[in-house]
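SEVERITY: medium
COMPONENT: batch folding queue
REPORTER: lab tech (J.R.)

DESCRIPTION
The queue accepted two submissions in a row. Attaching both inputs and their returned structure tokens so the on-call engineer can compare them side by side.

ATTACHMENT 1
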Amino acid sequence: MNTNPTYLELLEQRIELLNSLSATLLAARAAMTAFDVGSLEARINEQQELCGEIQKLDEQRERLQYQCAAHLRMHGGDRSLPNSPELEETMHRLYQAQTTVKQLNAAHQVLLQRSRRTVTALLNSIHTFEGSYRRAALQQTAARAEPPEKV
């Protein structure tokens, strides 16, 4: 049994990982808009794991490319390899998956920038009115702490 994956198998694995990454980006967006911090953190962890897996896979793919190039050089560099419809279709799907991740990542980045501006504006607003809110809160707390007057 051959445990070394083929180039096509590595591409298929990369497509699968990129599709999973797309799904986690969409889930992270949903978590952000729902203010679900726990879910957002989980999606970020998933994204980190997937990116690590993609990196490892790319290292395998690069090694295989290097070995193939060396093999071609040793055998006269015959570049008249037949075009494989399966490889072309896989490369097209890989391009689509990469494009989708790139678009989702850009949209995610914009959402993060907007969220950062919103949080900054809210914090500035809170700091501006901090004294007013503190006085009102203290008055309400003091009023609740006082025993009711007997009539």
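ATTACHMENT 2
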Amino acid sequence: MRQALLLLTALICAGCTREKAGSASAAANTSDSGSELEAPRLIPAIQNQLNLMASGVQPTDPENLTAYRNLAGDVVNSMAADLQRAGLADSGDFRALRDSVMDDLGGGPATESELDRSKLNEHIARMRRLISMYQQAMRSAGDRQ
């Protein structure tokens, strides 16, 4: 219970903060619709979780993994929606990496969260690569304005 409370507090704090101005993930608008991007407000929370898991501080028990998987799913879906709103075509690389990231966590929302501890570092690297790919694409979209 204490771990779930800690996770919830981290998520709320991350949702209330913003990254430094000028970074692609802190951009407020897409170039075509003027609607607010979804992923930038979630990225700090997922990065925090990745850092905790990488350092071994965040336990990878089923309860924490379920919370992490839900957050990861929200981030991944938000990044995909932002890219689509920005009119950025997916060459297939983003979709393939997105699918790998979610497959690492055991599939869809109805399944129990699993993450092979021996593959934890691979998952963390994939998720970080996916975030970087998103941020780079959004930066390039901003440069085209």
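NOTES FROM REPORTER
The chain is about 60% helix and 0% strand.
No errors were logged for either attachment.
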